[in-house]
Design a protein that fits this description.
12% of the residues lie in helices and 33% in strands. The protein has three helices and twelve strands. Helix 1 crosses helix 3.
Length: 213
């Protein structure tokens, strides 16, 4: 079993250079045909650090059980890979290395990475349509990259899904929230364009990993 420190919730921060490396690629995220695909644009890759570099593993589908995702549980979802230039960037390495170090995971650990832009619609747009939830992993990190012309989207952490949140934070550029997904729950408030005449969006990375056997 992994002997990571027994820390339920951590806050950390990427460097400005890392945010710069990662931010522009969000403009190239595709829509999908999934239930949330018109307002949650996404790419998805599984990676591992190898010899000081981030190595993209062969593409795979993504599925969560109905037990943890009541919105799209047991649905096999396919996403385009994160762009190779982004996977190979110094910013991606910094983000993955921070995730491994914070959770005391080895470089051989597989990390699943979701790159997501939530685009504000005409009315409140759900950031987490599955509601207060767990993702079915041991460790997760939500990394704020950019908020543009939006209200809402605050990231919330709960000790119990039926109780008040223990943390509410609008993840600004570079801020990283890491949590023990087996013991805590999370959610994000819907977003709305602050100026309805202009596009509004929130860009985040979500990193997940299971404990090593």
């Amino acid at each position: 079993m992994n002997t990571h420190a027994d820390c339920l919730l951590q806050l950390n921060h990427l460097s400005g250079a890392a945010v710069h490396d990662l931010s522009s690629s969000f403009d190239n995220l595709p829509h999908t045909k999934h239930a949330d695909g018109q307002y949650r644009l996404r790419r998805y890759s599984v990676v591992r650090i190898n010899d000081g570099k981030v190595q993209a593993l062969p593409g795979r589908s993504f599925v969560q059980s109905e037990q943890v995702n009541h919105f799209q549980g047991d649905v096999i979802r396919q996403f385009e890979d994160i762009e190779q230039s982004i996977t190979a960037s110094k910013g991606m390495y910094e983000m993955c290395a921070l995730f491994l170090e914070a959770n005391s995971l080895s470089e051989q650990q597989e990390i699943e990475i979701h790159q997501i832009r939530i685009a504000a619609q005409a009315s409140d747009t759900p950031v987490a349509p599955e509601g207060v939830h767990q993702d079915g992993f041991s460790h997760i990190a939500v990394v704020g990259i950019r908020r543009h012309n939006i209200d809402g989207g605050d990231f919330m952490v709960f000790k119990d899904k039926h109780q008040a949140p223990i943390m509410t934070l609008a993840l600004d550029s570079g801020e990283v929230a890491l949590l023990d997904d087996s013991k805590l729950w999370h959610y994000a408030r819907p977003i709305r364009a602050h100026r309805p005449s202009e596009p509004g969006f929130m860009d985040v990375f979500v990193l997940t990993a299971k404990d090593e056997a």
